[in-house]
Structure formats: C-alpha cells, structure tokens
Amino acid sequence: MEFAQQPILVTGGAGFIGANFVNDWLAGENTPVVTLDKLTYAGNPDNLSDWRGDARHEFVRADIGDVAAVNALLARVRPRAIVNFAAESHVDRSIHGPEDFITTNIVGTFRLLECARAYWSGLADAEQAAFRFLHVSTDEVYGSLQPGTAPFREINPFEPNSPYAASKAASDHLVRAWHHTYGLPVITTNCSNNYGPYQFPEKLIPLVIHHALVGKALPIYGDGRQVRDWLYVGDHCAAVRTVLRKGRLGETYNIGGWNEQANIDVVHMICDLLDAERPRGDGISYRDQVTHVADRPGHDRRYAIDAGKIFHELGWKPRESFATGLRKTIRWYLDNVAWVERVVSGDYRDWLAQNYAAR
C-alpha cells in the first residue's frame, strides 16, 4: 500500500471531539482510521458504533503514555499521520484532581511525541516528508480576556489559569520543541469551546439539556456572565481535516466559531428551544430550573478566538451559527436519549455530587 493510503492514527478517538472527527473522517474520506483510546470515564466506544465491522476502522484500547503499546501499534499500522485528541479536558476535574491532567496531558504527550519521533525517523525520505503529527489543543492556554479586548491570536502569550489549561499549555510547548529541536513535522490547533453530539454531560450544554429534561436544577456559576466562543464540533472536525491537509509545518492555527455568548444566555437559549421542542408537562418554562451557584476558583471571565489565520491561509471558516448549531445539538440529544442514559453512570453522578453539592 502506498504511504498516502496508509491509515491515520487518532488518539483519544472515543471521546467527544475525537469520536466526531473519526465519524466525520470515515463518512467522507477513503483512507482508514485506527482509533486509540484509554477509555477513561469520558471515552465511549458507543460513539463509534457505526463502524463496527467496517474494515476501514480499527479500535485499540491503550494509553498514549504506554510506550510499548504505542510503539508496537505504530510499527504494525504504519500511519501516515497522528491526530492527537487524547487529553484530560475538564477544568473542574482538574481543580479537584490535577495529577491526572499532568500525567496524561504532559507526560502522555511527551511519550507520544517520542514514539512518533522514533517511528518517523525510521521512515523513507518521501514518507518522512508526507508524515504529520497534528496536536489538538485549547484556547484556554491563552488565559482570560477582558470585555472589549481583541480575541486571542496565535501570537498571544500563554497565561493559563487552571491546572487543565496549564497542562495543555505545557503539551503545546512540547510539541513546538519537538519540531524545532528534532524536525518532527508537527502542527498545533487551539480551539474554542466545542458543542454538539456525543459530548459527555458534565459540560455546560449537554448538562443543561439533560438536567432540564429530568427536572433537575440547572446550575450556573456566579452571575453567569462568563463569555465563551462556541464552536460546533462538526465545524471543528472540518477545520482539523483542512489543517492536516494544507497546514504549514511548525505552525499553530486557532479554530473558533466567531460566536461569543455569555453562559447565562446559552442556558436561556437552551431552555427556550426545549420549551418549543419538548415542553414541560406543567407548561412552565425550563428557565424556572435555573439555579446560580458559587463560582469556581480561578474562573476565566472571557475567551474569544480570532480565526483569521486559518481563514486567510487555508480557506476554512465555520458553517454553523450558534443558533443553527445549538438547534442541531438539542435535537440530537432528544433523539438519542438511550445514549445519554448509558453515559449517565455512577461515575458521572458521583462527579456532580462532588462538584456542586457544596456550592
């Protein structure tokens, strides 16, 4: 098989964004995918159920920090690219238990880079030139913005404010260093807040949808005026494909939705859409379930992404507005109640109790 037809390796491919990327890739591309995932609480093989038995997809349960397993996998499947989604990714969890974030996001990324470097070094010259290591990161590495301040650009300094953001900033630095020191052909993307199908219901949008439908309180941190730039996950997947195909080596590309929204406004929009799509039996708006809780430590006030570089260099821009993306998301959750119920496990309930009970 020619190297251009070799599979891509997607790490963290059973999680929210990774699974959407794998599903999106296999629906539109001819080359196969090997998915590697440790299957922590947020990794769910059901997210990839459409491809069971399909010869173009292989699932491997392993940790990116397991050097022996990763080396053996690279030698066996000979991927033409690694797309690294593997990460611990929830700010609140990082506050309660930062060590997992250091282990996966820093040590795990280091070990994956070393495995990739050894593999890449053994390729023929043409294959080395074609190989890519694409590292998927977050806008939270840049810190917090004040109202009216220009959105984050790729030249902004890193100012992470949570253990999660600090661990991702460290991983970004490692990726950059492995390119400049060893020549590893890397590209990094930093995305804004994703939403869409298959998102674990600890994050704001799926949590509010689920809680609303089962009659629970809709917890909002502080005054709810924290602002985020919201990116529909399908748009993010398209951007990553574009960067993988056309991105310049050693570069960073910010991927944003051009959709700044305050958290409280997002919650109200969800409530209004649910009022229309699945009204409460008593006729009262879901807004009645909104409950303000004490803010979390070090809560960044505003994130916003300037996605001008990826548009001007590579021609990508989001297709979904926040209104259209949110409507698609809500309809997916309404149509996939069985998936939600399987995900809402004891681990999830224990997490909610730990995080919100004392607020």
In brief, what are we looking at here?
The chain is an alpha/beta fold and 359 residues long.
Quaternary organization: single chain
Helix residue percentage: 40-55%
Radius of gyration: 20 Å
Give the count of helical stretches.
Answer: 13
**Low-pLDDT windows of residues:** none
Written as H for each helix and E for each strand, in order along the chain, the element string is EHEEHEHHHEHEEHEEHEEHEHHHH
Structural class: alpha/beta
Fraction of residues in β-strands = 15-25%
Number of strands: 12
**Spatial order of the strands in the main sheet?**
3-2-1-4-5-6-10
Largest sheet: 7 strands, parallel
What is the CATH class name of the domain at 3-194 and 231-258 and 299-320? Answer: Alpha Beta
If you consult CATH, what is the topology of the domain at 3-194 and 231-258 and 299-320?
A: Rossmann fold
Mean pLDDT: 94
Q: How far is the N terminus from the C terminus? A: 57 Å
Shape: globular
CATH superfamily of the domain at 3-194 and 231-258 and 299-320: NAD(P)-binding Rossmann-like Domain
Name given to the CATH architecture of the domain at 3-194 and 231-258 and 299-320: 3-Layer(aba) Sandwich
Protein architecture, described:
- This protein is of the alpha/beta class and 359 residues long.
- The protein has a domain at 3-194 and 231-258 and 299-320: NAD(P)-binding Rossmann-like Domain (Rossmann fold, 3-Layer(aba) Sandwich), CATH 3.40.50.
- Helices cover 44% and strands 15% of the residues.
- The chain is built from 13 helices and 12 strands.
- It has helices at residues 16-28, 67-77, 91-96, 98-121, 125-130, 163-182, 204-214, 233-246, 263-277, 308-314, 322-335, 337-343, 346-356, and strands spanning 8-11, 33-37, 57-61, 81-84, 132-138, 186-191, 193-195, 218-221, 227-232, 252-255, 260-262, 290-293.
- A 7-stranded parallel β-sheet has the order 3-2-1-4-5-6-10, with helices on both faces. A 3-stranded mixed β-sheet has the order 7-9-11.
- Strand 5 (132-138), helix 6 and strand 6 (186-191) form a beta-alpha-beta unit.
- The longest helix is centred in the N-terminal third of the chain and has 24 residues, at 98-121.
- The radius of gyration is 20 Å and the shape is globular.
- The termini are far apart.
- The model has no long low-confidence stretch (mean pLDDT 94).
